[in-house]
Structures are given as C-alpha cells and as structure tokens.
C-alpha cells in the first residue's frame, strides 16, 4: 500500500480517540493534515470539539474546514492530540520537526493527556537517526549552536526555504537539520541539546507518545506506551 494511503488509514484509525466535547490538539505535516481533513468531516456531521493547532498551517486548514479553534490560554490542558512523526522506534521515541513545527508541537504534546501518533510504515526505524534531527535555534545563536553540534559529530545544515533563504519557523527562529547517524542514546543527546544556550527546542520527543497507530499495508498496528 502506498504511503499516502497508509497515512490516511492511520488518520482514520485515530478518529475513535476523539470524543464529543473534547479539546483536540492538531499536529502538523501531511499525515496530520489527513487527520484534520477527516476531523473536519466529522465536525460537519455534528461532532463538537475545539481544536488547538500546532502551526499556522494547521490552523488555516482547520479554520477552512469549519473546525472551531481555541488557544492554550483558554485551555492549558488538551484531551487528545493527533500528530505525525518523521521516525519512531520500539520505545515510541520520536523524531519530529521535518515540517518545521517541532516547538509548538512539543508544547501542545506536553499539554496533552493522550498523545496519539499516526504514521505510515516508512516511519518505523530500529534506531533513530535515519532522518536528520531538527533543532530550532534563535537566529543570534545559530553559528554558535551549529559549531557545538558539529563537535558532537553531526553534519549540520541550516534549513532553507524554496527561495534559498533560511527557513523561519512560526516563532521566527531557524532550524538546524543535524545528521548524527544512528542515535544510540537519544535521552542523553536530548539533554545535551537542551543545555545549549540558544537552542529553543529539538525534535527528540521522548516519553511523550501514549499511542502510535502504525498503518502497515491494510493493517493498523497499535503500539502503546505509558
Ligand atoms: C512537523 C512534523 C511532522 O509530524 C513530521 O514531519 C511528519 O510529517 P509527515 O506526516 O508529512 O510525514 O514533525 O513538524
């Protein structure tokens, strides 16, 4: 089954975790976009939810579908969030940020009671690191952080937009895409990155996912965490 169909299948499987009256966190990326589309269809049929988007892009999509939006000011606790991932391993540790929304995604995830990841079969890896790890940095710190991450052994590229300019996140920061190769100890790397002044957030999501819905051909595999 093509990855696009698997994304849609995983998104469809996640709908049963969304209940009437809930506050729903919206992820970002092509898989999350499938979920937002399907959620919009349920809202048109009468499902009552309020959503908190993790990016301007997802906010725009949701608003266009008539999904009522709210904010963390109104609801600092979210019932359920459905999001995609760039990679996950057997311990449900994730790499996120391929779509550039890792900072708000992590904040939304941290405010969520049930954090559900939807993924096609290509996202499951034995060891994290096939996908370059995105690290969001404030502009001023970019050269300093870039140099420090290189000394940890990674190849580092400042992410660029289609015009060749540094890509700007919704929070107006840069992203460094860091190729570490296989990340044998994600928790310790996460700590090292978080400790670097100027790093706003990194794309390692550890101990956050409660459930991964993995579409594998015609099957949906459920992986459960804490
Ligand atoms: C955005 C993300 C996305 O969830 C991740 O990049 C996966 O995207 P896609 O569903 O398009 O493969 O972390 O910041």
Description:
The chain is of the alpha/beta class and 226 residues long. It has six helices and 13 strands. It has helices at residues 3-14, 30-44, 56-64, 102-110, 142-151, 186-194, and strands spanning 23-26, 50-53, 78-83, 87-88, 94-95, 112-120, 133-137, 155-158, 174-179, 199-202, 204-205, 211-216, 219-224. The chain has a six-stranded mixed β-sheet. β4 and β5 form a beta hairpin. The longest helix is centred in the N-terminal third of the chain and has 15 residues, at 30-44. The radius of gyration is 17 Å and the shape is globular. It starts with a helix and ends with a strand. Ribulose-5-phosphate is lined by residues 27-32, 83-86, 96-102, 105. The site of ribulose-5-phosphate has 18 residues, from α2 and α4.
Topology:
Elements: H1 3-14, E1 23-26, H2 30-44, E2 50-53, H3 56-64, E3 78-83, E4 87-88, E5 94-95, H4 102-110, E6 112-120, E7 133-137, H5 142-151, E8 155-158, E9 174-179, H6 186-194, E10 199-202, E11 204-205, E12 211-216, E13 219-224
Helix pairs in contact: 1-2
The structure holds ribulose-5-phosphate (5RP).
CATH hierarchy, class of the largest domain: Alpha Beta
CATH 2nd-level architecture of the largest domain: 3-Layer(aba) Sandwich
Radius of gyration: 17 Å
What's the mean pLDDT score?
A: 97
Enter the CATH topology name of the largest domain. Answer: Rossmann fold
Question: Biggest sheet, strands in spatial order?
Answer: 2-1-3-6-12-13
- Give the SSE string: HEHEHEEEHEEHEEHEEEE
Helical content band: 25-40%
The fraction of residues assigned to DSSP E strands is: 25-35%
Please outline the major beta sheet. Answer: 6 strands, mixed
Ends distance:
30 Å
The total strand number stands at 13
Number of domains: 2
Class by alpha and beta content = alpha/beta
Give the names of the bound compounds. ribulose-5-phosphate
Unreliable stretches, pLDDT < 50, 5 or more residues? none
Tell the overall outline: globular
**Total of helices:** 6
């Amino acid at each position: 089954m093509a990855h696009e169909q698997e994304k849609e299948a995983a998104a469809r499987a996640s709908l049963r975790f969304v209940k009437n009256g809930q506050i729903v966190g919206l992820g970002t990326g092509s898989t999350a976009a499938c979920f937002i589309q399907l959620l919009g269809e349920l809202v048109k049929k009468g499902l009552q939810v309020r959503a908190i988007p993790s990016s301007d892009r997802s906010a725009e999509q949701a608003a266009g579908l008539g999904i009522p939006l709210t904010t963390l000011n109104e609801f600092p606790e979210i019932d359920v969030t459905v999001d995609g991932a760039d990679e996950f391993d057997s311990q449900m540790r994730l790499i996120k940020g391929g779509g550039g929304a890792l900072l708000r995604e992590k904040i939304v995830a941290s405010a969520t009671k049930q954090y559900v990841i939807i993924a096609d079969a290509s996202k499951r890896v034995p060891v994290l690191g096939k996908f370059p790890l995105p690290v969001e940095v404030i502009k001023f710190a970019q050269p300093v952080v870039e140099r420090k991450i290189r000394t940890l052994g990674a190849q580092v590229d400042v992410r660029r937009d289609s015009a060749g300019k540094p890509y700007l996140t919704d929070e107006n920061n840069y992203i460094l895409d860091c190729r570490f190769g296989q990340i044998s100890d994600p928790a310790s790397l996460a700590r090292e990155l978080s400790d670097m002044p100027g790093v706003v957030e990194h794309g390692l999501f550890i101990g956050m996912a409660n459930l991964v819905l993995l579409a594998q051909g015609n099957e949906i595999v459920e992986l459960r965490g804490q």
